[in-house]
Queue: 4 jobs
Job 1
Amino acid sequence: MSIISSKDVNEIIRKTLSIINPKIMNHGDVTGYILFKMLECEQRYTEQELVDYTMLGILHDIGLYKESNVKNVADFETKNLWPHSIYGFLFLKYLSPMGDKAEIVLYHHLDYNKHGMIQSRYKHIIECLSLADKMDTFLHLKEENLEKEYFTLYRDIKFSGAALDLFWKAEERFNITANLLDGSYRKEMEELLAKRAFSEQYKKGFLEMLVYTIDFRSEHTVVHTLATVNFAQQLGRLKRLSGKDLRDLYYGALLHDLGKIAIPLNILESPGRLSDQDMKIMKAHVRITEMILEGIVDNDVLQIAVRHHEKLDGSGYHKGLTGDQLSLPQQIVAVADILSALYGKRSYKDAFPKEKIQSIIQGDADNGKINKSTVECLMSHYDQVIAEFEKEKENTIGLYLKIKEQYAIMIERFKEFN
């Protein structure tokens, strides 16, 4: 059985990113739809290509989610062009299943009369995305900011005239603006994604990408999540879980903190003990995770994700379940989550030493809060588990460093386009 259906891939992305900024997500939806209909009108692309390009249209401004003060998307779409384009390109290149096409996002703000300065096999798609982006942006600009005759004055200067002609052809054939106004475009998008059966690897790539979007709020939370996945998988194998349980364990651990995308940064990165009120807000991340995933991912995965703070004695949250209500995979993720939290270095604490970590975890097991046999298994293989994680962590941290280094280099290099 599949973890998530093809048609729900976009839905889970929409639900998650809308929590950060619904205006950016709505702009992405509309731009993606316009691009989809323009390319469909040409009748030269496979279904998979149409899906890829549509998803890139939806996510073309994913770099904007890293900005904390986006109130008017049109301002960023007309003034602050390169920072979010470059970050979005790097994010999609390294962290999404569409990395080979990420340069489409990189150049979507480049004026058409400068396209001769770049080399890309996707120039036509870039032209179409740029036009689709402008169409939605100008619909949202106030009248006094909208230059009269923009699409006449700047033809083949700011945008491709051929792309504009294609838009009008698609408009005549598909009634794009009418579908946007009455909301029926959403059904068309769902049908496109439903009829194309994504491979499990493709869907896995998008779910992994979602976890990295928490980086827009807290890099430490992403590293904690990836550590929890690693520890859970190792413990699951040591406990000889079935193939299905290991698969569910992976995805449940991967998605377990997705709701933290809605938690304020001052609480996520608080340097001291949280107040009772702040702890109440922090605990809400479990319910938010449930709201995002419910009805979208496989139920076994959902329950693993939302029960990682439950305790065997009923003292956990958010439902106060007891041991007889918690499956072994759910209990393993709870142990992995604690190990990750104790072992991880945060802005407000260094990693705890081995003895302290083992003492705390063993204490929870002895007090009937977490699975004792899983803890015994961890203690017997502790050094092996940590060594395996450290090897994997190099890849994770290395990826962040690569993105940051390339971002700094590209920001300087792209000044030539200003």
Job 2
Amino acid sequence: MNMIVKIWAKIQRKWMKLRLQPIRVFCLHHVCEQFDVETMYPCDRMALSEFKQKINALRRQGFQFISLTVAYNHIKNDYFRRKKYAVLTFDDGYKSLLEVLPWLEKQSIPATLFINGKYLDGKSFRDKDTERYLTKHDLFSSSSLSSSLIEIGSHGWEHTDAARMNIEMFILNINENVSLLKKHPRYVPFHAYTWGRHNTQTDNHLHSIQIIPVFMDGLKNYCELNIIHRELL
């Protein structure tokens, strides 16, 4: 009986992929032309020129860039999907966003920013005084961050491993961040797990407060409900 169930599930997965183009959701951190050894980690940074080349390559391959909200609606509702869609997301809320967002706006490309509220006051989860984050003034007053192309989602109040937190601390971490971000007109109910780490309790809590979990597992999105997969660009 178990073998039959496994075979049937495999057939269903193959059929799903035949009828649905995957939606690719990409994760980035710093995108800027100059690498600053004092404020950036090499694995977190992509040169702006390289970023532009990758975006243009995806366009040549036929990808259309859409917001995370639009992508999620496709994932929930599409039975057939022939268009190629891609989504850009940026984690942590670094100051370098102010370099890449104007270019994206000129290209009419949406982006979702996952913000840690604690660091809007200039603190750092790595305890590096040199790391530069967006400020509250940037978040709420910058024209680049109030554009209709921008969405603001949660990354937690602190950049903390959710899988190692007890559920009470996780709830506090989410509530404090969301209470701040909800004041932004472009807030959307998505939470990107830091480092992609989570557990069943954290997932269940997000579902209970109608926030959509966003993972970092390298998978593509077809029609799986209630979650979003991401990969590195």
Job 3
Amino acid sequence: MEYKIRDICEYIIALVNEFAKRFGLTDRQAYNYIHRHKGVGFIEKNYGIIHTLDFSEAVDSVAIYCRHTGGKL
């Protein structure tokens, strides 16, 4: 299924905001961390599934993925 790029971008912004809250970061710090550890690509690739999760589960999924690529949060 094809998704609109705008929907994906808006979801990434919302997820970054929730990630920042969870880990006590600014939105910029959260985005930089997620981007550095390939989390943005993970979200884009898995958008069809991840956007159906609640934000808590989605943040957990991104955090786990980032840990697998060298992240420490």
Job 4
Amino acid sequence: MNGFFLLLPFLAVRFLLPLVLNPRALARAAYFAPMQGREKTAYYIYQICNITIFFYLFFLKIRPGNSWQFYTGLICYILGLCLCTAAMVNFSFPDETGFNRRGLYRFSRNPMYVAYFICFAGMAFLTRSGILLGLVILFQISAHWIILAEERWCIRKFGTRLDMSMKVG
């Protein structure tokens, strides 16, 4: 089976689910905080990796079989989709200030990035592609810089009343 089929559930969860739950959530999820310096470069690397991952999957095949790569990939892929679904549901219903503190957001202010990484890593293992895994790692490293910009923006928008004990992940 073509690797691109792995993206269909991911895209449905990432784009259709928030649109159905709360149309404003999709716009909120597409917003990137203002970036400075290296964060801007990381943003472009992040977007290039994202597009490359999507298109590269067209050229890969899912390789089922009795191997650790297949089972690791299947577990990561399903776990990533479940985490992404929970993150999108939680994200779709912020509190009155627009801040998310429920569900996965009690443990991490960035559960979507974590879910994307786990899901994409699962896709790399399911297709047994070292190149795809390298792209996923680069994607996640660049996401770290985007998270730094988001943290700064959140502190400016919501002030120091944020629960700083929350983990960044």
